[in-house]
């Protein structure tokens, strides 16, 4: 199959809906074999059916909870046994947490946001770094938000998690600077998804872009030809070149 990612093996977290689902479908349309990760297996089943109906390479379902590092390690071991490498890692899954002021937030909710948005991505890096290094052109893309740098009331945990994610990924990019792996952060801007609507229930979403609009930016950063690393890039800058 031809396409910008022909022959690539790509893992996308948060592939059951929203941006991750659009990215998984676009990657498959570009010739990648996609490992689709999320908790809801039925939603992943329908994604895999859509990929097959498109005539794209068959996808693989990994219905795991990313807060469980043992499941992440087991998935990496399965990928090592079956493929021996990973070409593209997209750390996209996230949760917004309760829309409350910092002083009101339940500590367990704050902790969940940090575990999904930060700790799980470190667990992915830990588990998949050897497989990215085993690729001819390992590419890691983590999804951030402008709120990492412009924090907003009622979103302290989410903002803090994205700020921590940015530092984590920039440090990881430095870790792999002497390898062929490239690691970047991508900010998709505002996108009409479940996460956006739950975090900003008062917002008018009419006319807002949908997840498909940002998928090309992920393809660009996933390509073997991509040379940038350690950068935080807006989807628009990536698409406009
Ligand atoms: N939408 C925006 O305006 C916007 C703006 C800036 C940045 N972002 C970022 O874009 C990324 C995608 O967000 P989205 O808007 O597409 O959100 P979304 O539609 O709510 O999708 C979130 C995804 O994460 C998965 N997920 C959540 N917790 C998980 C867990 N514990 N284990 C495994 N998977 C889990 C969900 O799947 P399951 O529920 O099936 O597990 C779902 O597939 C996030 O990193 C978000 O911070 C979004």
Helix and strand topology:
Layout: E1 9-13, H1 18-29, E2 33-38, H2 41-53, E3 60-63, H3 69-82, E4 88-91, H4 107-134, E5 139-143, H5 156-175, E6 182-187, H6 194-199, H7 215-222, E7 232-234, H8 235-240
Parallel strand pairs: 1-2, 1-4, 2-3, 4-5, 5-6, 6-7
Helix pairs in contact: 1-7, 3-4, 4-5
NADP nicotinamide-adenine-dinucleotide phosphate binds at residues 14, 16-20, 38-40, 43, 65-67, 92-95, 116, 143, 145, 188, 190-191, 193-196.
How would you describe the overall organization of this protein?
- This protein is of the alpha/beta class.
- It has one domain: NAD(P)-binding Rossmann-like Domain (Rossmann fold, 3-Layer(aba) Sandwich).
- The protein has eight helices and seven strands.
- The longest helix has 28 residues, at 107-134.
- The model has no long low-confidence stretch (mean pLDDT 97).
- It binds NADP nicotinamide-adenine-dinucleotide phosphate.
- Residues 14, 16-20, 38-40, 43, 65-67, 92-95, 116, 143, 145, 188, 190-191, 193-196 line the site of NADP nicotinamide-adenine-dinucleotide phosphate (NAP).
| Separate helix tally | 8
Cα separation of the termini: 25 Å
Task: Give the second-level CATH assignment, the architecture.
Answer: 3-Layer(aba) Sandwich
Principal-axis shape: globular
Number of domains: 1
Characterize the biggest β-sheet: 7 strands, parallel
- Which class in CATH terms? Alpha Beta
Do you know the CATH topology?
Rossmann fold
Average pLDDT level: 97
Uncertain stretches of 5 or more adjacent residues: none
The structural class is alpha/beta
Strand content: 5-15%
* SS elements, strand count: 7
Q: Which molecules are bound besides the chains? A: NADP nicotinamide-adenine-dinucleotide phosphate
